[in-house]
Write a structure and sequence with these properties.
The protein has three helices and 22 strands. With about 250 residues, it is mainly beta. The protein folds into three domains: about 55 residues, no CATH class; about 90 residues, YbbR-like domain (RNA Polymerase Alpha Subunit, Chain A, domain 2, Beta Complex), CATH 2.170.120.40; about 90 residues, RNA Polymerase Alpha Subunit, Chain A, domain 2, CATH 2.170.120. The strands form six sheets. The chain has a seven-stranded mixed beta sheet with strand order 7-13-11-9-4-8-12, with no helix packed on it. A five-stranded mixed beta sheet has the order 20-18-15-17-21.
């Protein structure tokens, strides 16, 4: 409570606790003060309630230890995929408390087993932690969020594609194509790459601008029609020479 102009400047209500070398858990009644944007107490502002009871948990440093989370999985991801990054837990490290002799035997906290069998996409899920008897985790953490990043396991292979001409003027003919086929390197999902055949691809040369004589054409991946899911990595040769003559 207080003048509106001053209330508008309040960013938080703060209580001060003096630890005084406490070595065990304790509770204390703490007075509350309004704090403005400059981190200064504003005595003209009254809070309701004007105090609160606070319980402080004190832990002996010998009884606390930081350990990583160890993620446990079972099964295999779908064929054609692989786990592309290390499994990640959030938080990745936790503070555990317990008797010193018990802490010495623990170097990580395991998650419950995550079944990744048949997984085909990146996923995140909340997973329970397996907390040993006699051990507590700071902030009462009992679960972590685990991210499993998948990537398609692309493979590559070479395939031969014939050269076909189109849009040649009716008074012209192609007397020679050199070469008559090109070899392309393709990549994609292994199931798709292994199943495609030469007839699934086409390399069509647009001859609408061709005149009598030599017609040289640089070939790029955009000139080749491919099945869905296939990427053209390389073309050999990358240039074709066609000879055009009168019909």
């Amino acid at each position: 409570k207080g003048p509106k102009a001053q209330i508008d400047q309040i960013k938080e209500v703060r209580g001060l606790i003096k630890l005084n070398n406490q070595s065990q858990d304790f509770s204390e009644k703490v007075s509350l003060s309004a704090i403005d944007n400059q981190n200064n107490p504003v005595s003209s502002i009254k809070t309701s309630p004007n105090s609160t009871n606070v319980t402080i948990k004190v832990i002996d440093l010998e009884n606390i230890k930081s350990v990583p989370i160890k993620i446990s999985t079972s099964g295999k991801v779908s064929s054609g995929y692989y786990i592309s990054e290390d499994l990640k837990a959030e938080p990745a490290i936790v503070n555990i408390t317990g008797e010193p002799t018990k802490l010495k035997t623990i170097n990580s906290i395991n998650t419950e087993t995550i079944n990744i069998n048949g997984l085909s996409q990146t996923t995140s899920e909340s997973v329970n932690l397996i907390i040993p008897n006699g051990i507590s985790i700071e902030h009462d953490i009992s679960k972590v969020n685990v991210t499993i990043t998948l990537q398609r396991a692309d493979i590559s292979r070479d395939i031969t594609v014939p050269v076909v001409v189109s849009n040649l003027a009716s008074d012209k003919k192609v007397t020679n194509i050199d070469p008559q086929t090109v070899t392309i390197s393709i990549s994609g999902d292994q199931n798709i790459v292994n199943s495609v055949k030469s007839s699934d691809f086409s390399l069509v040369i647009d001859m609408s601008s061709a005149s009598i004589g030599n017609f040289d054409k640089d070939i790029s991946s955009t000139d080749i029609k491919t099945p869905s899911g296939i990427t053209v990595l390389n073309i050999l040769p990358s240039k074709i020479r066609l000879i055009v003559d009168k019909l």
